[in-house]
Amino acid sequence: MTTYRYNKTLSKRNMWIGETLFLYYRIFFYYLYSGKGIDAYRTSGIDRRVLIHIYSLVLTIRLFSFRHYRAKSYGEDLRANLRNVIVPFTIIPLSIFCFNKFICLFFLIFIYPLWALIGSIYLSIYDTKNSQTINQYFYEQLLKPNYWFATWRMNCTIVAYHSYKKWEQTKQQYSMEDKGRFLIEGKKLNIPVTPILEIPRIMIKHKSIEGGMGINVYDNFAINDGDWIIQKVFSNSDFIQNLVTSNAPLSTVRIITSRDSTSSVIKVKTMVFRAGRFQQKTDHNAIFYNIDFNSSHCLSSGTTNRHWYQSGLKSFDTKSMWQGQNYSIHPDSYQQLEGIKWPNVNEMIQCVSHAHEILCPDIPIIGWDVAWTNENNQLMLLELNISCNFFNGHFDTKDYTNFCYDWFHTLDI
Question: What range(s) does the Alpha-L-glutamate ligase-related protein ATP-grasp domain occupy (predicted)?
Fold first, then answer.
């Protein structure tokens, strides 16, 4: 095993830009060319967060052409799921850099550090919440980013690696990401999933269009071997409806559950209320309010990641990045959400923890979409997301770092 000796002073956040860049390349190319596991690069002077971040980037290259649990390869999955994710101020969807392994590698070596530098300059000027230098911002952006996309990408890499190494033991569990299969298996196991309409097919016909046009027929996946999940549209509970507008979509709570590499105990990483926006079909476009599930059960001030989904000239909108990241009041309903106590936190946690235990006991991390509906005030699970997104939820950074490191180490063996 190779052990690098490293000057501890260089591990601090006051490193010069050149020193930060050198450290990034040093670790990146070590992992890339050695083919060794995460613990091969050992030094007491480097934060584990730096190691898990850079190692996960290298794993993206290693796994790029390998089978993925929901695609022919990890590269194909990246192209499919990053086509609408646009780095602010670039107009460029990230899927372009996943066209093949070599373009992805070029991005990680040249473009990512450049974007981290540009972002650091921008942050040093416009981020009034923190008084950091460009050097400090660059260290964080390049070596241990903590924003929503970085954790999403990290989670995706962990489960991609896990599914590749443990496929024969876990393929049935990973198949639960199929929304239809999840509903069928969940119902069998008495998990409170959203019910399916028991009809073979439905016809949707426009009220005015003639000549055989304006007609769509959908086959029910559960009954008629179709591709479509046919369900009624559920409404928010009275509690949630009072927080959002009357025409807001079903607004769910995203709960992330996980299990450590050496334990079967299910833990909660984060819990976020996604308060849907005016006249939206889903709560993907929402204001995210963290729920303090450990103690107070109260909502924090709201945030959004919408600036990562702005195409064209809208990607240059700076208001959504900083001025719009403090929603104590919901911008559509004008209700004060910050400080409100969520009444059924424990019930929601018990629901998803039980579902994780019996549906996917071996999978490292899962995101659950929990709906609190007006159907007898009932909780329902809409779906699970294995390549899951924290949606700006608060989490214990040290615990999450150790979680990632331990899983990488376990899978390397």
Answer: 228-386
Which residue(s) pair with 298 in the sheet? 341
Give the model's confidence band at 314: pLDDT under 50 very low, under 70 low, under 90 confident, else very high. Answer: low
Distance CA 353, CA 297 (A): 17
- Tens-place pLDDT, residues 280-305: 999 999 999 999 999 999 999 999 98
Ranking 251-260, 359-368, 370-379 by mean pLDDT, the lowest is: 370-379
Q: CA-CA distance, 340 to 343, in Å (whole number)?
A: 9
Total residues belonging to the chain: 413
State the Cα–Cα distance between residues 215 and 394, nearest whole angstrom. 46
Give the model's pLDDT for residue 8.
43
Distance CA 384, CA 381 (A): 8
Structural domain span for residue 219: 196-230
* Res 273: pLDDT: 98
> Which pLDDT score, from 0 to 100, does residue 322 have?
52
Residue 11 DSSP code: G
Domains in the chain, number: 3
| Eight-class DSSP state of 336 | B
Residue 177 sits in the same domain as residue 250? yes
Contact 199, 223 (CB under 8 A): yes
CA distance 283 to 332: 13
Ramachandran angles phi, psi of 343, nearest 5°: -80, -25
| Residues 163, 364: Cα–Cα separation, whole Å | 10
